[in-house]
Each structure stands twice: as structure tokens, then as C-alpha cells.
Inverse folding.
């Protein structure tokens, strides 16, 4: 994805910093994307002393590489934007975490809070989620299975395509 301010990556980094102080054994945070906010993100990471804990992966377009990121992730977090990364994340069995008022084309509605993803309302809540993802592994493994099953049953490509066609027909 593209790194721009409206996605709220700064909020994710702040939450990670808070969570890291609560529980040092957090998994490494991988941020995939490139864009206008990249330098500000690098500066924030440096200012918080998280250079060894957060990896800026750059733009990744190779689906095999993206697949590895998703399959090895505990969570996919996009604080303020929940677009096409929602079904992609669910399809790989990766719970999606976002704000309930995130910018979306409707994809956010595929997140069922506590079932296949999590909605949160504050930076501290996001920090709590990061800590619980380590402390409550079974809960998050179940959520990952639910994400994959939800995708298989409720987000097949034909259904998604029909949704897009219906939206176009509605506008016309």
C-alpha cells in the first residue's frame, strides 16, 4: 500500500511503542508500503528508539512475498483505512484490526469485532490488542481461523465482483 497520513501509521507506531513498554517480547512490526509519509515514519521510529523492532519493508507487489507476510503475521493493522487489504488479510487467515470509523469502500464491514478482527477506539486500546496478541495466542489463533473461514464463505471472488457491479449499476 501507499504510506500517507490518512492511514494512521503514526498511531500504529505510537501504540506499538506503548505495548513494547508493557511487554518487551512483542513480535517485530512490519510496515509494508512506500509513499509520502515514509520519512516521517522513519523519524518517529528513530525518535521512539524502535529501529530494531519495526521493519519498513517498502512497496511489495509480488503476491508470493505478500503471502509470506500475511501467513506469518498475527494481525494486519490499518488504523484509519480499511480498504482492499481487509479481504486480502481475511483470505490469508490474518485477523484485521482497524478503527470502526476507518475510511472504507465498505470492506470494513467484513470485520466482525472479536470474531475475525478487532475494532478499537484509542491508541491505548490498540496497544492492549498488541499485548494480548502475544498473551492470548489461542484466542488469536481462533480469530485467524475465523478470518479464513469467513473469507471462504462470505468473500469469494464472484461475490466481491458482483458487489462491485451492483455498486456501478446503482450509480448509473
Amino acid at each position: 500500500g501507499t504510506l500517507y497520513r490518512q492511514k494512521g501509521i503514526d498511531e500504529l507506531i505510537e501504540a506499538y511503542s506503548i505495548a513494547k513498554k508493557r511487554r518487551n517480547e512483542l513480535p517485530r512490526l512490519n510496515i509494508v508500503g512506500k509513499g509520502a509519509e515514509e520519512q516521517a515514519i522513519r523519524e518517529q521510529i528513530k525518535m521512539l528508539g524502535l529501529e530494531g523492532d519495526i521493519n519498513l519493508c517498502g512497496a511489495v507487489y509480488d503476491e508470493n512475498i505478500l503471502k509470506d507476510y500475511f501467513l506469518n503475521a498475527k494481525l494486519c493493522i490499518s488504523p484509519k483505512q480499511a480498504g482492499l487489504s481487509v479481504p486480502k488479510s481475511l483470505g490469508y487467515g490474518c485477523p484485521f484490526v482497524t478503527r470502526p470509523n476507518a475510511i472504507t469502500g465498505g470492506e470494513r464491514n467484513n470485520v466482525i469485532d472479536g470474531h475475525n478482527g478487532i475494532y478499537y477506539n484509542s491508541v491505548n486500546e490498540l496497544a492492549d490488542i498488541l499485548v494480548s496478541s502475544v498473551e492470548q495466542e489461542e484466542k488469536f489463533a481462533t480469530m485467524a481461523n475465523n478470518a479464513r473461514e469467513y473469507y471462504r464463505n462470505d468473500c469469494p471472488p464472484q461475490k466481491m465482483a458482483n458487489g462491485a457491479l451492483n455498486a456501478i449499476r446503482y450509480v448509473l
